[in-house]
Design brief:
single chain, alpha+beta, three-stranded antiparallel beta sheet, 1 helix
Length: 72
């Protein structure tokens, strides 16, 4: 599992997707609309399908989503 705690760069995430080096993605969504930001998977040249494995909601409104790359 890889960990990118902030918006410093989306390049590692996209590179890991393309090379199929990451076997699980854990994304925490915060209920805040900023109106701007960096896409996490910028630079993908083809769709990258993920299967939702687990989701957990927290009292503050945050939701943890756990995904794995779809077979194929």
């Amino acid at each position: 599992m890889a960990w990118w705690p902030g918006p410093a760069s989306s390049a590692p995430a996209a590179g890991g997707c393309r090379l199929r080096l990451i076997d699980e993605y854990r994304l925490v969504l915060q209920p805040v609309a900023l109106g701007d930001g960096l896409p996490l998977f910028a630079g993908l040249t083809a769709p990258f399908v993920l299967d939702l494995i687990e989701a957990q909601a927290y009292a503050d409104g945050a939701v943890l989503h756990v995904y794995r790359p779809a077979a194929g």
